[in-house]
């Protein structure tokens, strides 16, 4: 069960090799978390992540999970919830894609959409139903500021995150009053392996800073968290920039 400050004893990470997710897991383990499930495709990276977290003290399990196989989600995640209550689910999987290539190869663009949106809808609904059945828990969804307004440079990725963000907000409204808390996290550019080699944008952040923001959001039972917080103001302004001008901005 979560304590009075909303921090979990048990954590299920969907996207168990995500740098942001692992930074968040480490921070929560340092506070209170004692059981962790890392769900991702089986790989040496997944086993290494599990070993790293075990060294910090908690009981850590790995779960074979594929975002692109929604037919398996109910069975795979059902086994985790059958093993005991899960205080928090962190939905952290996603792919950035390659905008230039994906525009030329529609199948690659579809894969980005299926991973970031369709897979997340499936896993999110399965997790939400399980959390509701146990009567408590948090579902934390890693969205992105890229979903706030599609940019020419990454509109395929951005559109998938826009869909995910809208879905998570609606799910939060649907679960209001049930004991289940949904929190949407909107980081800006995060320095990680996924963004290695890309031009860094202003207000860039790190997985550790995102993890800190997640912890604070859980304590406050926030519904939306921006990382860094100033992006809330920046994106509020950019949303209202006329399209013709927005198109010419170097974003």
UniProtKB/TrEMBL annotation:
GO terms for molecular function: oxidoreductase activity. InterPro entries: NAD(P)-bd_dom_sf, Sc_DH/Rdtase_CS, SDR_fam. It comes from the Bacteria. Keywords: Oxidoreductase. Its EC number is 1.1.1.333. SUPFAM superfamilies: NAD(P)-binding Rossmann-fold domains (SSF51735). It is an enzyme of class 1 (oxidoreductase). The keyword Nucleus does not apply. Belongs to the short-chain dehydrogenases/reductases (SDR) family. This is Decaprenylphospho-beta-D-erythro-pentofuranosid-2-ulose 2-reductase.
């Amino acid at each position: 069960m979560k304590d009075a400050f909303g921090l979990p004893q048990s954590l299920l990470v969907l996207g168990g090799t995500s740098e942001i997710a692992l930074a968040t897991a480490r921070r929560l383990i340092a506070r209170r978390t004692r059981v962790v499930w890392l769900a991702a495709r089986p790989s040496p990276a997944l086993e290494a992540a599990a070993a790293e977290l075990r060294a910090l003290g908690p009981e850590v399990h790995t779960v074979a999970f594929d975002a692109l196989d929604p037919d398996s989600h109910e069975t795979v995640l059902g086994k985790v919830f059958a093993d005991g209550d899960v205080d928090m689910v962190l939905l952290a999987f996603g792919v950035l894609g390659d905008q230039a290539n994906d525009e030329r190869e529609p199948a690659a663009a579809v894969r980005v959409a299926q991973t970031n949106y369709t897979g997340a809808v499936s896993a999110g609904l399965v997790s939400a139903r399980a959390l509701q059945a146990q009567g408590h828990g948090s579902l934390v969804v890693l969205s992105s500021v890229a979903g706030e307004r599609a940019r020419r440079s990454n509109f395929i990725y951005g559109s998938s995150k826009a869909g995910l963000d809208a879905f998570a907000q609606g799910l939060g409204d649907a679960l209001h009053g049930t004991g289940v808390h949904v929190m949407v996290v909107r980081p800006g550019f995060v320095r990680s392996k996924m963004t290695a080699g890309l031009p860094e944008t202003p207000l860039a952040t790190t997985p550790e800073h995102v993890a800190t923001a997640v912890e604070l959001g859980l304590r406050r039972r926030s519904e939306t968290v921006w990382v860094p917080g100033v992006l809330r103001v920046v994106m509020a302004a950019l949303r209202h920039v006329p399209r013709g001008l927005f198109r010419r901005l170097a974003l």
